[in-house]
């Protein structure tokens, strides 16, 4: 079986100024210094540089929360992969449901963003997940299948294993309603199977995270599932003690 290093990512969304980022890291970095898992913090754009500087002497990585697929151009308000690389950023979240819901992120755009991130040397974290009414209607598998197929369409088979995928059921995000470990395992197993239809090797290597109301109390049980390789954490990642406890649960 392939060795997959667990990955714990903190999605801060539109939270934490530069000063708050520095304060968080001053407490958090010493607590995870011995962690044998991969840890990534994803601050808003203005705090990225401070995060990169503070994490430089640690193994904690820094990722952005979105990017545009072009290197430069007339795209007001957007940020490109080379701009993130220049800051020393390691990765980027793509296709978070809040971007899909509130900012019109499409599968077509994601199909362009994913190869652009990989070509630039950024580790993408692709988010997929169903809405509550889709789960209730028994459409979860179909939604996930469609998103995986469309979003990864332009990624070469050899690079598929370099994408991190986060399964984030929309009804579990910020609601306190976590998917059960069985629900999360089933969905993530399906996602791995879909990757496997393109490359068996990539399916063995691709890391698939669970996201949606992960906290220090439920993390261990979720992370113990065979196909769950880590977590993308929102609310509970804003507190350095809570996020360090989630990292410890994965170690
Ligand atoms: P949550 O957010 O942990 O607050 O549910 C997860 C996410 O949106 O990535």
Summarize the helices and strands and which ones pair or pack:
Elements: E1 7-11, H1 18-31, E2 38-42, H2 48-55, E3 61-64, H3 81-87, E4 91-94, H4 97-103, H5 107-120, E5 123-128, H6 132-136, H7 140-151, E6 164-167, H8 181-196, H9 200-205, E7 207-211, H10 219-223, E8 230-233, H11 240-250
Parallel strand pairs: 1-2, 1-8, 2-3, 3-4, 4-5, 5-6, 6-7, 7-8
The structure holds 2-phosphoglycolic acid.
Structure notes:
The structure is a single chain. This protein has 251 residues and is an alpha/beta fold. It is built from eleven helices and eight strands. Helix 2 (48-55) links the parallel strand 2 (38-42) and strand 3. Helix 1 (18-31) runs parallel beside helix 2, helix 1 (18-31) packs parallel to helix 11 (240-250) and helix 7 (140-151) packs across helix 8. Bound molecules: 2-phosphoglycolic acid (PGA). 2-phosphoglycolic acid binds at residues 11, 168, 173-174, 211-214, 232-236.
Describe the sheet with the most strands.
8 strands, parallel, barrel
Distance between the termini: 19 Å
**Are there runs of 5+ residues with pLDDT below 50, and where?**
none
What are the distinct ligands in this entry?
A: 2-phosphoglycolic acid
User: Outline, from the CA principal axes?
Assistant: globular
Rg is 17 Å
N-to-C series of helices and strands:
EHEHEHEHHEHHEHHEHEH
Strand content: 5-15%
Instruction: Write out the strand line-up for the largest beta sheet, numbering strands in chain order.
Output: 1-2-3-4-5-6-7-8
Number of beta strands: 8
Helix content bin: 40-55%
- Class from helix and strand fractions: alpha/beta
| Chain-averaged pLDDT | 97
How many individual helices?
11
């Amino acid at each position: 079986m392939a060795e997959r290093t667990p990955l714990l990512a903190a999605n801060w969304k539109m939270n934490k100024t530069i000063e708050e980022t520095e304060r968080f890291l001053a407490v958090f970095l010493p607590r995870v210094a011995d962690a044998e898992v991969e840890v990534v913090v994803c601050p808003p754009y203005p705090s990225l540089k401070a995060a990169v500087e503070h994490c430089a002497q640690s193994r904690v990585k820094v990722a952005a929360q979105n990017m545009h697929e072009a290197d430069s151009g007339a795209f007001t308000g957007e940020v490109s992969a080379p701009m993130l690389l220049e800051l020393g950023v390691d990765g980027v979240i793509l296709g978070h449901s809040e971007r899909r819901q509130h900012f019109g992120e499409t599968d077509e755009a994601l199909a362009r963003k994913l190869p652009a991130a990989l070509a630039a040397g950024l580790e993408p974290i692709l988010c997929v997940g169903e809405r509550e009414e889709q789960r209730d209607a028994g459409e979860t598998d179909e939604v996930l299948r469609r998103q995986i197929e469309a979003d990864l369409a332009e990624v070469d088979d050899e690079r598929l294993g370099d994408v991190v995928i986060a399964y984030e059921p929309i009804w579990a995000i910020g609601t306190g309603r976590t998917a059960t470990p069985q629900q999360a395992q089933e969905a993530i197993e399906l996602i791995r199977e879909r990757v496997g239809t393109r490359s068996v090797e990539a399916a063995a290597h691709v890391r698939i995270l669970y996201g949606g109301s992960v906290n220090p109390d439920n993390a261990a049980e979720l992370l113990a599932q065979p196909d769950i390789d880590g977590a993308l954490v929102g609310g509970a990642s804003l507190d350095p003690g809570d996020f360090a406890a989630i990292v410890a649960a994965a170690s």
